Records
---
Amino acid sequence: MMFSGILLKQRSAIRGVALAGLFAAIVLNIAETYGFHLFKVDIKNMMHFDRFALFFNTVAMICTFIFFLLSAKEMEKVGLNYADYFALIFFIICGILLSSSFSSLLILFLGIEIISIPLYILTGSDKKNLKSNEASLKYFLLGSFSTGLMLMGITFIYGDAGSFIVENITSLSTPDAKPSILLIAGLLLLMFSMAFKVSAAPFHFWTPDVYDGAPTVFTSFMATIVKAAVFIAFIRLFNYGFSGIHESWKFIIAIITALTLFIGNITAVFQQSVKRMLAYSSIAQAGFMLMAVLALNSFASEGIILYTTAYSLATIGLFAILVKMKDYTFEGFNGFAKHQPLLAAAAVIFLLSLAGIPLTAGFLAKFYMIKSVLDNGGFLWLVILAVLMAAVSVYYYFRVIQAMYFKDGEAQAMEISVSFKGVIIAVAALVILLGIFPQLLLNWLYF
Amino acid sequence: MIALLLILIPLLSGLIAFFLRTGNAAKGWALLSSFATVAVSILGLTILSKPELLQFKAAWLPGLGSNFSVRLDGMGQLLCLLTAISFPLIFIATWSRQYKNAHNFFGLMLLSQAGLMGVFLAMDALLFYFFWELALIPVYFLSSIWGAERRIAATFKFFIYTFIGSVLMLVGLIYLQSQTADRSFDIDAFYKIVLDNKTQNWVFWLMFIAFAIKVPVFPFHSWQPDVYEQSPTAVTMVLSGIMVKMGLFAIIRWLLPVLPYSSFAYGEKMIAMWTIVGMIYASLLAWRQDDMKRLIAYSSIAHLGLMVIAIFSETELSMQGAMLQMFNHGINILGLWVIVEILERKYGTRKLSELGGLAQKAPAMALLFVVVALANIALPLTNAFVGEFMMFTGIFTSPISEYELFTVPAAGITIILGAVYTLRMIQKVIYGNTNPLTETGTDIGYNEKLVLGIIVIMIIAAGVYPKPFLDLTKDTTDLILKEANIIPVLVK
């Protein structure tokens, strides 16, 4: 297990230390995956580091690394407490590690809270901006409410099963007996609070305001890596804890998925600002990821890794470009391709990936999701709704492409360094590579 | 190896074209690469036509049961030949047109060629889907960047339309894969699937809508005239000459043999009726058009409709006729577009009402134009006559059709209407008196004579001696008819 160190307060070296620290964490995590332990702590079965969790940790930290490379400089513009932002992000990563590897509900709760509390602060970190403050307060109030729901749910489940360990929840009751009302109530409360954290409809109302209000660099982090981690926790919880009573909650998840897809996509169509559009698109993408929770088979677990990776890479890249723009509306992108052909081409690849066009990672990710649901049988209506909504998503993603390539205008961008361009191109190349050879990523799950 | 080369040459040279500095270099490069493709394609038809050379298979996504598997069969040979021949002709015919950022233009053109080749070669359903989209994306960018004024809205409609179709098809393909014995996307595994009638019906619609949008079959056609009109002519040639064949091709290869029952249940009745309505409607619209591009677009809906009916009537004659006609229609419509391109470049207009009297000013063009137009009407001695005659005979003698006494005459009316609108176009453009615009007209140059000459030779040659083509498509026809045969099931 790796816990991040507390960072220095020297402003100039902070970035370097953060990158080095994260790199060390990645190396240690990979070493851990292959059976090399730096130290051992007795965790009393509260956590379980399996292949899936460790692999996801690696992916999440690599994505964070890319995020630092692209956006660390931009964080300086947010406010004065530069070091604190890094420290908070490291806390979040710590929370991610906890929530991806929990085997006790208590650790799940701790992990989710360690993720959430720094996020409340990061959202409000632009102190002079009223919108940022408003977003932070909103997020905090609603977030604590959902935390309350989660605690309540955990209590109910403890009342029924007498244990916090997820494997024990349903294994104690006999398979054909009806699950008790306490268990069902607890399950629903947990489901709703997790749905809140991944911004699934109808628990999504905080998302657009928070994503829009938060400083753009942090929105990028929130919308990608954090969301992915909560999804992994979601899947893990339902896979280990409740797969025995799959039949009883499957339909509710299907309804939530359908609502999320519908509301996210349809609302995104009407947005004027690219940032807000991306907020709604992240709701829409969450709908697709929920299909993995619905299916819970081997395709789903491979698929969710691929999906979170594809989605995180593309969204981090897009936000990194967005941060450089002076005007966040669609019109602000007019003629961008003429001034920055390379960046525009990379942005096209990211958008195509989000829309799920073949040859990009996003296509295979969606493919895995659809396949995992179809393989279980049933829910054809959901799959058809999902693909139709994917077609709707083409509408708003392509508006950006149209603005960049087909319309004339003077897209204003800030100074862009060569290394920034290099990283963006590398990320875009990675998206294409994963779109053709997903095994490059997925094989690590097994070897 | 041949199969792989047909994809790789345009793909790689397309990628290289993006990095060429000047537009002229890119133009030359694109022409060179397209000649190489023609050479490979002809080699594949003649000396190197050995089974082991015509296919290629490599592991691709083992976890999903999908392989990179490409093979040239008869129908594939024919359509790859069409794709290979069309591109150099397009490049030569539009040689003197200047594009902004020409290296990107030619790069995207070659990429779309690679996608088209892939569609015709893929023997794996997932790979087929990949190429299906790969062919679409470059064309979308080509039309949206270099198109006319209303391009953005028109191409966007086109993209959304086809994308909805493709994703529904994807659901269908994934479902079919889950029904195969060994969970693979391989075409042979798909052909072995046996589904009950009810399941076939809904899978059929998932897949057919995608193909119908591409063709386009009547209620799904509304994207087409706008896109043809707004795209640069070189792209319109690709779209109408080759890309619409993707839909027909997919019906033959991926629909009839896989879902024989519902292809029979819907194809011969409901879809044939829609198509008839669409053909007559499109022919009437073509008659009233003033813009030549829109006229040809509507006429293309009518011609393709007949091929759809022929394919669904599932006889050897109609199937062979449809395949032959896919090739012929590609050549003929290419000829018509070349004429439009010449007229537009010389006189700055495509409107019938503003042209006239060109027979006096440009006799060579007038002659070649008339031959191409006659082929569009399917006059005997031209290639289209052979195809249409075979299709009509096939539909009429089909054991599974029940309404052939209605279908054939109704489709026959559109042939008459075809003569009406095509001759009207000829009359307005090349006969009559010259007007101030055409007063100063000159005849066409060497490269245009060359292109139109080649097209006319192919029209006549295939019209007089179509046997090589029919021999070529025989294997595919037999296979499809065997797999799609439901008569024993019905008799039982």
Note: Chain B touches chain A through 26 residues (CB under 8 Å).
---
Amino acid sequence: MKTFLAVLTVVAAIAAFWYAACVPMNIKSVLNTAARAGEVVVPADSKARRDAGETGLVFRNTGHIAATWAEERPRLPAPHQVAAELWSTTVDKKITSKRSLVYHGWVTLSATLLGFAIGTGLGILLAVGIVHSKVMDMSVMPWAIVSQTVPIIALAPMIIVVLYSIGIQGIIPKAVISAYLSFFPVVVGMVKGLRSPDAMQLDLLRTYNASTGQGFWKLRLPASMPYLFASLKIGIAASLVGAIVGELPTGAVAGLGARLLAGSYYGQTVQIWSALFAAAILAACLVAFLGLLERLILRRMGEKA
Amino acid sequence: MKSESITRTVIEARSLDLTFQTNDGPVHALKDVNLDISQGDFVSFIGPSGCGKTTFLRCIAALETPTGGSLSVNGMTPDEARRNRAYGYVFQAAGLYPWRTIAKNIKLPLEIMGYSRSEQEKRVQDVLELVDLKGFGQKFPWQLSGGMQQRASIARALSFDADILLMDEPFGALDEIVRDHLNEELLKLWARTGKTIGFVTHSIPEAVYLSTRIVVMSPRPGRITDVIESPLPKERPLDIRDTPEFIEVAHRVREGLRAGHGA
């Protein structure tokens, strides 16, 4: 109960900060609209308002504060506006509608999941190779690290163009970008995990004359599970980012990235923010699902309850 | 255990040398070690840190490779003996897999060695009984005390029924009371199975209480300074430690350790 209250307090503080931030952010356009409608605003001159500071305007026009939370195209939409947009574009719209966030969310999610599967598979394979071969350790690991220093936003268009030129388009290029981001945490985590058994554990297997394969399946792989799940949680969030970034350069018509892009073309800030929140909620759900899976599997592996 | 049959030598070391190359220069871990261990012997290795007692045990297990001299286990090279699964090894830490139950931990070597399922089950039950852990097979390691975990690790080493049991300070991390109890149990187990046991320890009472022979070692370079044949009977209740014979042997071990240290 105490923690619940504490968590609630934090959420309330964030919301309060957000509402407060909306006031100065939106005050100028609110005053302009009001002035055009013939209401009294201070100062009345639009040029003077343009040059005035936001904070001062707020204090001189306290009567217009409420309007900063209800604009149609605010610079910064208020939380309830974003929530209302989320509600109307998910629950109230048919999911087949081009304006449904569920539809767009699924487009992004499918690319995310495919990319995540590819990235995880590739990451595990590379980790197994790196742990078992010194050559791979020295040749692959540096490239894996370098690959993550290239900004994905610069690389994504090239991946899409190259794949398009060999006739691959649709979900695959997005999934490739997604995989590109998600394989790295899996490689790092799995290498660490597969190497986690100590010298004594390896000596013990040696006294049984166990093969490398037996050592892998019976010791290294199970020992790496906690590390794998930590990596997967980072990997799936990175996958989602990758899929969204993959939707931007093509000017895709569907997907959360497309919603972001369309929103920014038309100044639909509420749409941008609701797409952002949809992405965040989706990521949270994916991570939570992995957390659940982790608990389930580690519990079966005898972890202390 | 004496006159029943001709005692066979199972472990034979002749002028064994082992030098580790480290960044600080070569370290002479073993120098001119000569030792015969006969079948059914309980041999303890005692000495201060760095005297090579663990290294010698690891050489027998082919976990280290000597740089000179000869070493044979069951008439084979240590590595051949390892491949033939000639010994079970118990480390200082129990090293049970936390994701396996006690029974499945004991099955680990059996799975690796390709025993049939029914044989695995049977052997697990047998060794669990042998180490007095019957009924704990389905528990996970964290549900057991440190002493019970170490018993499980001994059961694991016994499960494939190798003739030799190598134990590297197996009770070093346990408290005195648990250690006494496990020492008693180990002697019973040894009497029942007739295995040859190599046992590394820091503790003089433990070495004297358990062994038929005590090998006293000293460091820099690691070498054997004394080999003491124990005059104690095979039946050893815990209070044998208060008898003059016991104190006499313990005294001789202490003398040997002191002499090795002075040199």
Note: Chain A touches chain B through 20 residues (CB under 8 Å).
